[in-house]
Automatic annotation (TrEMBL):
It comes from Mycobacterium paraseoulense. The lineage of its organism: Bacteria, Bacillati, Actinomycetota, Actinomycetes, Mycobacteriales. Gene3D superfamilies: NAD(P)-binding Rossmann-like Domain. Residues 201-341 form the 2,4-diaminopentanoate dehydrogenase C-terminal domain. InterPro entries: DAP_DH_C, NAD(P)-bd_dom_sf. This is 2,4-diaminopentanoate dehydrogenase C-terminal domain-containing protein.
Length: 356
């Protein structure tokens, strides 16, 4: 199989980990990089992520990237409150026949429940170019679908499923994303992530998608938001955290069928490890983690612990590992269960020990 020619768009905390993975990847050839920040334009892709030179120079020239006629665009733009801009970024590539994998276009996680104004232009572009697009990541993404549904292959009667993301974002460098959750705002602040259509497009649609996969018709979806603060200022990678402002958020989205909860989807986010000490914590007090609980016959629970860097890496690698499958798929928007099982083949080859 020839190596797929790939362009990376976005070199922030998530895009950079994807870029690192694609450099010298055994199945993919990096042919282009789009950078937004002025200080990154004109620099070698390897330099941007602390690796050796690649000969691929970062640019903001979209026409030049389109002219590469790559097999796939790995898109890692910032989607929060920039949905229309992100859609406009990828549409020309899809129309030109370049497939797209992404962790950003959240309305495509469960496209049948995504916001039409962002889903329909993507679908039309796929029809025009005969191309495919897949949105993955961690959450929404692999943890809410791939991991959950692999577990359910061993389930019997299912009474309820619960997926929780638990993160300490003290070391996360981007305030744009941290601020979207309401951190550093007054405790009564109504963050758009929870009270606007951003949360609906990202997370309520995920709950509806899980219900579809389970064959469950939901009566309603409820949502609760809890905020907590610290009594002192604190330092974080994204800036200065202020006392008596939001330092922890617990958001619970619940899918109800036949009058009882069936699906729980929870985000527990902190910007300091001491905030909300009685709330859920990641396994082994890791910076990040995921918990999946299935109640029924049998019942079981799993937990995964991650560093923030590894969490960002998985977010990028889930769609990247899908590139070959996406390029081989029929044109259109691919949902979480529309692809065959895919996984990394970037195995590190270690020489066998010498006998004697």
């Amino acid at each position: 199989m020839s190596r797929k020619r790939v362009i990376v768009w976005g070199t922030g905390p998530i895009g950079a980990t994807g870029l690192r993975a694609l450099i010298d990847h055994p199945e993919y050839e990096l042919v282009g990089v789009h950078a937004w920040a002025e200080h990154k334009i004109g620099r070698d892709a390897g330099e941007l992520v602390g690796l050796g030179p690649t000969g691929v120079i970062a640019t903001n020239d979209v026409a030049a990237l389109l002219a590469l006629n790559a097999d796939c665009l790995a898109y890692f733009g910032n989607y929060a409150s920039r949905e229309a801009e992100c859609v406009a970024d990828v549409v020309p590539f899809l129309e030109a026949g370049t497939n797209v994998v992404t962790a950003a276009l959240m309305d495509l996680i469960a496209p049948q429940h995504g916001r039409a104004e962002f889903v329909e232009p993507i679908a039309a572009a796929c029809r025009t170019g005969g191309s495919s697009v897949f949105c993955g990541g961690t959450d929404p993404g692999f943890m809410t679908t791939g991991h959950l549904f692999n577990l359910l292959s061993g389930a019997g009667r299912i009474d309820s499923v619960s997926v929780a993301e638990i993160c300490d974002l003290n070391g996360y460098p981007s305030y744009d994303q941290v601020g979207a959750w309401g951190f550093n705002h007054p405790l009564d602040y109504r963050a758009p992530m929870f009270y606007g259509d951003v949360g609906t497009g990202w997370h309520e649609s995920t709950v509806r998608g899980i219900a579809d996969y389970l064959g469950v018709e939901l009566d309603e979806i409820t949502s609760t938001v809890e905020n907590a603060s610290l009594d002192v200022d604190y330092d974080a990678a994204w800036g200065r955290g202020l006392a008596h402002t939001i330092a922890a958020v617990r958001w619970t989205v619940t899918g109800i069928a036949n009058g009882r909860p069936v699906i729980y989807y929870k985000k527990v986010e902190r910007t300091h490890p001491d905030a909300a000490p009685d709330w859920e914590r990641a396994l082994n007090d890791a910076e990040a983690g995921y918990q999946v609980v299935v109640k029924g016959e049998p019942s079981f629970e799993t937990a995964i612990a991650l560093s923030l860097y590894d969490g960002c890496a998985i977010t990028a690698l889930h769609p990247i590992n899908a590139i070959n499958a996406v390029c081989a798929a029929a044109p259109g928007i691919l949902g979480q269960l529309d692809l065959p099982h895919f996984y990394s083949r970037a195995t590190r080859h270690v020489p066998a020990p010498v006998a004697g």
